[in-house]
Amino acid sequence: MGIVNVTPDSFSDGGQHFSVDAARAHCDRLLQEGAHLLDIGGESTRPGAKPVSAADEWARVQPVLQHALTLGVPISVDTYKPQVMQWALDAGADIINDVWSMRWRGAGVDTAPYLAGAREVIARHGACGVCLMHMHREPLTMQTAPMEGDAVPQVAQFLVTAAQDLEAAGVGRARICLDYGIGFGKTVAQNFALLARQRELLAHGYPVLAGWSRKSSLAAAAAVGEASRVTVSVTAAVLAADRGARVLRVHDVQETVQGLAVWAAMRAQDLPTDT
């Protein structure tokens, strides 16, 4: 999944693709590099990020989405606002990627078709996929007081509950994917525990999306700066794939595709043993 941030302030590439033309060209480039689907976002959720209105977010996303929908691959829109979900799905988006896992309860709007909550919006669009992510607290405060204790069972319980709530609203299980939310209110050790024990989340029967790309925990582990996170990001993506992740959300598509090719070549020769 290639990342298209149409924002001035995302943590890694904020502003690089903020203009409509730059974002559209970035969509094309990510597909040329080997992306299978695109994830378009119009609001940064980096630590400390301030929210934007639904109207402003949609103004950023809509012209890029319009172009992406002509490219012949599934298109995801990264949003937590029911209004933006509704507009994106009405426009033809295939997937909603929600960092709030359908929990956001912000200010409503006075236009009747958009008064429903996120679960209702998703349920009404019977063909779309949805990714539910774990976030501790909210972007403005999530790193000021990270989670405590063993994050793995806490994250698993949260995500499975969110998925079951969505199923209860009428959304089929096959439409749901889970993301354990690297960097969203977790310590470095907790992030790596989630990677090491990723199969514990898979055991609940939902596919997993892994979003390790350029995260600060990778820089902390390898003692590299923000500009040197490509190699560590590819390493984490391959490790996540090896532990069963079905979707890898990445900035550096070409390098990740190359890393996965090496992993796939190894797996092709990894013959089963008698033990």
CATH topology: TIM Barrel
Query: Order of strands side by side in the largest beta sheet?
Result: 1-2-3-4-5-6-7-8
Spell out the CATH superfamily.
Answer: Dihydropteroate synthase-like
Rg, please? Answer: 18 Å
Major beta-sheet overview: 8 strands, parallel
The residue-averaged pLDDT reads 90
CATH class: Alpha Beta
Poorly predicted parts: 108-115
The total number of structural domains is 1
Tell me what the CATH architecture is.
Alpha-Beta Barrel
Gap from first CA to last CA: 36 Å
Strand percent estimate: 5-15%
> In total, how many beta strands?
8
Helix content: 40-55%
Helix/strand/pairing category: alpha/beta
**N to C succession of SSEs:** EHEHEHEHEHEHHEHHEH
H/I helix tally: 10
State the oligomer: single chain
What does this structure look like?
This protein has 275 residues and is an alpha/beta fold. It has a single domain (2-268), classed as Dihydropteroate synthase-like (TIM Barrel, Alpha-Beta Barrel), CATH 3.20.20. The chain has helices at residues 20-32, 54-68, 82-91, 118-124, 151-168, 188-196, 198-202, 216-222, 230-242, 253-268; strands at 2-5, 38-41, 75-78, 95-98, 129-133, 176-179, 208-210, 247-248. An 8-stranded parallel β-sheet has the order 1-2-3-4-5-6-7-8. Helix 2 (54-68) runs parallel beside helix 3 (82-91).
Task: Give the structure's gist in a few sentences.
This protein is an alpha/beta fold. The protein has helices spanning 20-32, 54-68, 82-91, 118-124, 151-168, 188-196, 198-202, 216-222, 230-242, 253-268; strands at residues 2-5, 38-41, 75-78, 95-98, 129-133, 176-179, 208-210, 247-248.
